[in-house]
Each structure stands twice: as structure tokens, then as C-alpha cells.
Amino acid sequence: MAGGTWLGLETARRGIMVHRQALDITGHNLANASTPGYSRQEAVIRATDPYTVPGINSSCTPGQFGTGSMVDYIRRIKDEYLDNNVRMATADSGYWEDQISIFQQAEACFAEPATNGISKQIVELFKGWMDLNNYPTDLGVKATVVETASNLAVMLSSVYKQLDTIETGVLDVDAGVVKGGMMKDQVDQINSIITQINDLTNSIKKIYVVGQQPNDLLDKRDALLEQLSHYGPVQVTDGFNNGKPNGELTLAFYGTEVLNSSSGVCLNDLELEVNAGGEIIVNSTSSGEIVNLSEKLDNQEFSGSLVGLVNARQKLIDEQDKLNTLAEAIRDEMNTILSASGTGYETFLYTGNLENGDFKVNPDLFKNPDKLDGAIAHAAAEIRDKDIASLGNSTFSEYYGFIVTDVGNAAKNANSMAANQKAIKTQITALRDSVSGVSTDEELTKMMQFQYGWQASARMITVVDEMLDVIINRMGV
């Protein structure tokens, strides 16, 4: 005995449907060949259950007549290990990337070497003292010394304020309360990403429940996870049910669970806080501390842009402190010399400090430069080459040069490390794309394969139709 009369038609029809669906998937791949984050898909084709033809001498077991094929499911080509490596590389790269522009801005504040920079003003100040030593009663020379000192004070204050503005742009804090800045913006973005991941996960779970494969939604979720990893290291655990994925997701950020779709945890209420010790912490208003960013930096866990920004901000604060130390050293040394003049100006050639914003030449002396005693000019000029204890036994020029070099090295190091990490990330991403990405040549080859398969199945229907026509319409004629 043989299969039913219409078995051949049904088998050919299934072949047409399978190849049409496979062509549709191929077209979808080609349409997304340049789509960031898209993972290649393919139709998993399997043979349908065979038709059993019982007979007198045969048992009722399958395997005698094939019934065609079907698309079992649409597979997303993905390597989870490479995805995890890309996320790790993204976090490492993120640590350096956002620091580059910050240190470049800081470097631009000093504008060294420059014709009229701070370094030049330090030289001019002591040159003025040497001129006053040669012409101790010259009112014009005295006025030049005071004016040069005032210019130096203004420049130091200006650079300090510029660094303070950059630092505030990283994190604006008022009495421990975070008001704004890059870090706050990034935490707001993190909250948005976690919300989007949670919403996508809920949609993905529903599609798995009805037995379908949410490939495009999974790609969107993976893209968001990679975006989140820029801000800090993430750990992802997918959920399974009886060995099959069910769309569940557990997400940890800096080692703390912020999303668990099975238990309903979704910490999208993160905010920044600066504690009494000056440490920067990410808190959840519903569950408490998530991560101490300052502690991560102290432990040299250089991962994620949030910790990178903490590092950049601390570096700016350190450079401000060094500038203030330099200004105070100049003030103290000058005051010591001036106090020996006996002119009544025995304290504060310079008053205040950079932090308080009142670092300047004594106003009375500025109005009456003739009160400057030329007799102290020689002692003041000699300070130029003096090793100052508060400056690490460096001269004023040497210490300022150290500050400028330190800022320049920070910018250079951030740029170099960012380039290095970017190269690593690019290489790992290329490896992932070689597995998951779309090859147009490969897809075009498949397109021809499925096209010929479709044509062959269609031809099969024509042949069966012709055979049936002979039986139905021509036999017995």
C-alpha cells in the first residue's frame, strides 16, 4: 500500500512554505545587515513526522513515507560568552573614555607654555624684585612689582575657579546634596535603562509562554545591557525552565542585584549621595546602598564610567589643592620678607587663599606702591631659587611645573588607556560579530538555495497535478 492520493501535494506544499519562511528570514537578515546589535537568525528546519502505512506483513510503526518538512523555530545565532566579554570590555573602556574630555579641559586651563601664563608671571615677579633691588626708590619699578604680583594672584585664582567649574560639572554637590553634574545625569540614564530592560523582559517572557522566539526583543535587551555596562560592570543570568530559556533575567550592577524578573525586583530608583566622609555612593531609595564608588576607586577597581568620573573629580580636587598650596607658599614667603621692612605693612602682602576666593595683593599696598620698601628687594628676589618646605623642597617655578606636568600626564594617560581599551573592545566585538553578525555573501548564497528549493517544491506540485490529471481526466478515454 502507499500513502494517500494527496500526500505528494501536501509534502510539496510544506516544502514551499518552509522555503518561503526561510527566504523571509534571509531577507530579514539582509535588511538588518548594518543594524547595530542585530544578531543573525536562521530557520531551524526539521522533517515532519513520517506517514505510517500499515499492511498485512508490516507493523504500525512510522518511518515508511516522509511527509515533508517544517520550520521548527527561528534560532538567534549568539555566543553568550562573547557577549559577556564585550560587556566587560565596555566597562573597562568606559572608565577611561569620559575622563579624556575632563582632563583636556583641565589642561587647557593652564595654557602652558604660554607667553603670559602663570609660569611667565612667576618669572616676571622675581624679575621685578631684581629690578627694584637695582633701583630701590624708583616708584615705577615698585608699581611694576605690585602689578605683576596682582596679575599672578588673578591668574592663580582664575585657574583655580576654572578647575572648580569643571569639577562641579562632574558632580555638583551642596552640603552633601547632589544637585547635578555628569555623574547625576549618568545615574538618571542608568535608571532609564533598567526600566527599559525590565519592560522588555516582561514582553519577552510573554512571547516565550506562547512558544515563540522573541529574537528581535532579545537583541534590544542585549543592546541595553551593553549600554548599561558603559557605566559599570554588569553580571547577567538568564532564566531557564526545564532546560529551555524562559526570558527571565537577573541583573547585577557593580555586584549588586538591581533586577530580578522572577522575584519582581527592579531597582530603577538609584540616586547619588556624598556621605559625611566625602565618599560618593549610589543608593536605591527602596533598598539602600548599591555601591560605594569611592571605595571601588580606592581598591583600584577601574571599571565603569562612574568610577572613572570619581577618579577625574578627585584629580581635579587634588590639582586645586596644589594650586592653593603654591599660592599660600608665595603669600607666606612674601609676607615674611615684607614684615621685616618696618613700613607698617608687616603682614599679608597677599591675603586669604584661592579656596576662599580672596587671594590678592594687599589693597592698601596696591593703592600706594611707594610704600614698598626697596631695601627688601634683594631678599625677595632670592626667594626665586629657595627650596620651600611646604612645596616638597621645590622652588615656586618647579612646583608649578609639577602641577602642569601632572595635569598633562593625566590627560595623556587617559587618552592612551582609552585608546588601548577601545582596541581591545573592538577586537572582542569583531569576534562576536563574526559569530552573530550578518554576512551578506552568506545570506545571498542561502537566498539562492531557498529559492531553488521553493522552485523545486513548486515543480513537484505541478508534476503531481499532471499525474492526477491523467488519472482523473484521461484514463478510460
Automatic annotation (TrEMBL):
Highest taxon, organism lineage: Bacteria
Keywords assigned by UniProt, alphabetized: Bacterial flagellum, Cell projection, Cilium, Flagellum, Secreted
Domain Flagellar hook-associated protein FlgK helical positions: 104-339
Main localization category: other
Any Pfam family matching the protein: Flg_bb_rod
Biological process, per Gene Ontology: bacterial-type flagellum assembly
MF GO annotations: structural molecule activity
Subcellular location field: Bacterial flagellum; Secreted
Protein family according to the UniProt entry: Belongs to the flagella basal body rod proteins family.
Protein name as it appears in the record: Flagellar hook-associated protein 1
Organism: Desulforamulus aquiferis
Lineage: Bacteria, Bacillati, Bacillota, Clostridia, Eubacteriales
